[in-house]
C-alpha cells in the first residue's frame, strides 16, 4: 500500500484532512469519492485536480468513485457562487454523464478485474425516487439548522455584505451532498470524500450523517483551490474555459495554455498536473531555474498534460502548429493543419475574403497584396516587398510573377500571406 497522504502532500495537493485519515488509508484498501458537476458534456481543467486526486488514490492501491452529481447539479452549490444552476432534464444529464465517463477513462481504470477498479456513480439514481417528506423525515431531522448555519459557505451568502441571500434550495445543498456520502458509505463501503477546499463544510456534513445515522466513521480531505500567480482565474483563457474535449478547446490551444504559464505557476502545476516523480521534478526545476529563458518546465508541463488528456499525435500536431508562428516551419507543415487548428493558430490575425470563382480564375500577387486585402498600402509597396524577397505565401517565398490559384489553398479554404517574419494575413475563400 502506497502512502496516498504523503504523495498528495509533497505535490501541494493537500489543504485540509481529518485527523486519522492517513492511518485509516494505510490499514487496507479503502474507497473514496469526488463529486463532479455534470452541467456540460465535457470536463474542463478546473476539474483536473479532483481527477488527479482520484488517480493518485487508485495508484496508491485504493478504489476511486467518480460521482456525477446529477441531482446536486440541478440545485447549485452555494460555495463561493451567487447564482443557482439551470435545471437539466434526465436525457441531458445521461448524455453528459457518458461523455464525462469517456474522459475519465483516460485517467482511471474502470474496466479491469482489479479490486480497486474505478466506478462511476450518479446521485440522481438514488435521489430521484426519494420524496421530499421522506428526505426531511429520514435525513433532515439529524442535522440542526444551527449546524448548517455554522458552515462558511452558508455564512458568506447570508452575511450583510452579500448582495443576494440564499434560497432554501441552496441551503439544503449540504444535506443532499451529505446524504450522498451516507449512501456511498452504506452501499459502497466508501469512507472518504475528497474535493476542493470550498467543499469542506459540505463534506463534513456527510461525515456527521455517517456518524449520526450509520454510527460509522468517515473522513474528509480537501485540496487547495488552484490559483494563478497573477491573480487571474486558473483554467480560463480569453475564450472562456479550457475544456478537455478537443471540439471545445483544440489540442493546440490546450497545449498553448500550459506553455504560457508563468515560472511560479509552472513549478506548482508540474507537481499537480503530471505524474512525474519527485526526483524528476526536482531535477527539472533546478535546470529551469538555471536557464528560465528555455522554459523547460512549461514545455514539459504542456507535453505531459496534452498527451494525458489528448494523445501523442495531438501533442506532435500542437508543437508543429506552434512552430508555424514561432519557428522554421514549411508549407507542408501548414497544409497538415485541420481547419480548427489553423484558425486557432492565426486567431487575431487580419483576414479578408475572396470569392472562390476569383481564385479559381487566378489573381496576380500584387492585386492580392494591395487591392484585394489591403495587406500592403499600395501596388508600389507590394512590388518593393516582393523585390526585397520578404513576401511568403503559405510559408514559401514568392516573386512578382506569382498568380494565386486554387492549388495554393490550405484545406481548400485559406491562403496565408506573410511579410517579413512576423506580419501575417489570412485570406479566406468564400
Summarize the structure in words.
By secondary structure, the chain is an alpha/beta fold. It contains 22 helices and 15 strands. The protein has helices at residues 4-10, 21-27, 48-59, 72-75, 90-104, 123-127, 132-138, 145-149, 152-158, 168-171, 173-188, 200-213, 251-259, 263-272, 278-290, 296-309, 312-326, 331-335, 339-345, 356-361, 365-372, 379-387, and strands at residues 16-17, 31-36, 63-68, 119-122, 190-196, 219-223, 236-237, 240-241, 351-354, 363-364, 391-393, 396-397, 403-404, 414-419, 423-429. Strands 1-6-5-2-3-4 form a 6-stranded mixed sheet, sandwiched between helices. Strands 9-15-14-11-12 form a 5-stranded mixed sheet. A two-stranded antiparallel sheet has the order 7-8. Helix 11 (173-188) packs across helix 12. The longest helix is centred in the middle third of the chain and has 16 residues, at 173-188.
- How many strands? 15
Question: What percent strand?
Answer: 5-15%
Q: What coarse outline follows from CA principal-axis ratios?
A: elongated
Sheet with most strands: strand arrangement: 1-6-5-2-3-4
Largest sheet: 6 strands, mixed
Could you report the average pLDDT, rounded to the nearest whole number?
90
Core attributes:
430 residues; alpha/beta
Task: Sum this structure up briefly.
With 430 residues, this protein is an alpha/beta fold.
